[in-house]
């Protein structure tokens, strides 16, 4: 039972050895177990051991942060929680042992309750709820804790460190960080990869309004960033920043414009303006929680919600799929002028507040 509970055998009143095939080993183990029991008198306290396998892309792993924090602080305080991830930088502030995937070695005679943050479509989890049709923080909380979190606990927290800031200074400079408009022309599924010409119009119109556009993103095996042109006066950080650098840049910038991708979730840890262009996943299932709500300094823009054109019936044999575009992309995307206008509202609000302060 220990692997189902993460409890050592010493946490029981009785240790049961029957059925183990190596009697010689058992006879040598019993005296050692008795010694360990004696050392823990009179409290007999033993930590529970949990091994959290954080899976998915960067955005999914960012969304695991509030769940792990809630787990540590409110569900399993004082227990032995170890985290496996592709992105250790996301969890360094939690003061938990964090290991990159493939680097963790199990200790002998330690039972771990092992759980995956992103169970696949072939699991019982997906028979209950589809990842496409709920918020990722909720999906991960259900996978790890069999519950969802209170809204106030869903906000993502990330640490901005000095190396990340130094990297941003080297690539971007320091003079205009707080005025930058970050734009992420992401590339992944067909349904999340907008026409490059549309993105080009967006960044050109934001720049035409007098704002400084900073392109962000990185190319990976299965996802990346489109090759839109960085005009003179724009800043291009594509494929130049580490994760720490990207976090520091998002924390410092004025606004973010992005498709459904990791920068949206990273921005959930900070207080900049978010302009989301959703397609296959509803904005209520994407926008991060800040100040207990999802639309704090945030807006989702679309002509028509692409997700409405997908079959989401629970009787669908292959589940809900959202990777393809059903028709003409331009039927779903907002006009570039509308995106630029929403970015401008973020700056006008700040200028209006400054004017009120002067009066």
Automatic annotation (TrEMBL):
GO terms for cellular component: cytosol. Pfam families: Glyco_transf_9. GO terms for molecular function: ADP-heptose-lipopolysaccharide heptosyltransferase activity. GO terms for biological process: lipopolysaccharide core region biosynthetic process. It comes from the Bacteria. Keywords: Glycosyltransferase, Transferase. SUPFAM superfamilies: UDP-Glycosyltransferase/glycogen phosphorylase. InterPro entries: Glyco_trans_9 (IPR002201), LPS_LOS_Heptosyltrfase (IPR051199). This is ADP-heptose--LPS heptosyltransferase.
